[in-house]
TrEMBL record:
Record GO terms (molecular function): hydrolase activity
One family name in Pfam for this protein: Lipase_3
Keyword Hydrolase in record: yes
Annotated ranges, domain Fungal lipase-type: 15-144
Protein name as annotated: Alpha/beta-hydrolase
InterPro entries for the chain: AB_hydrolase_fold, Fungal_lipase-type, Sec_MonoDiacylglyc_Lipase
GO-annotated biological processes: lipid metabolic process
Keywords: Hydrolase
Superkingdom of origin organism: Eukaryota
């Protein structure tokens, strides 16, 4: 997956954007449908799409290596208004995983940051995980909000 990280000084917003499926490698990621534990180091009921998690896991440290210094440069986590994470199709799946991961990361690293600190907006994203993953997603309602736009006729989204 290809992504972009930028920020707007005026609105104090960091943007993380993921591109959708564009290569054969991306297509193979899309069809790697097996559900695996979300937390690789522990067994749980939270299951996610293996291909999406493998792709995100390969990018995770690169993302943190950019975002953490950027947050520090902007004056710390409390000085940042929002982190907007977005993507289309495969990129939407990556955005979904990144949003949950960033909510967890920022909560552990900086404590309470407030509602809507992390905003996840996806377009045509496929399902990422099981019902337990959805419950895990909603457990971050105090820091994260999400908007998922789908075409009801698009079979990828359902």
């Amino acid at each position: 997956a290809t992504g972009f990280i930028g920020y707007n000084e005026k609105t104090r917003t960091i943007v993380v954007a993921f591109r959708g499926t564009s290569t054969m490698k991306d297509a193979f990621t899309d069809i790697n449908l097996a559900m695996i534990d979300y937390y690789i180091d522990q067994s749980s009921e939270i299951k996610v799409h293996r291909g999406f998690l493998n792709y995100y896991s390969a990018l995770r440290q690169q993302i943190l290596d950019v975002i953490d210094p950027l947050v520090a440069q902007m004056g710390g986590a409390k000085a940042v208004e929002h982190i907007l994470i977005t993507g289309h199709s495969l990129g939407g799946a990556m955005a979904t995983l990144a949003a949950v991961d960033m909510a967890n990361h920022f909560t552990n690293a900086y404590g309470t940051l407030g509602f809507n600190y992390i905003q996840c907006i996806t377009f045509g994203a496929p399902p990422v995980g099981n019902m337990e993953f959805r419950k895990h997603w909603t457990s971050f309602h105090n820091i994260m909000s999400g908007y998922h736009f789908q075409d009801p006729k698009d079979p990828i989204c359902h």
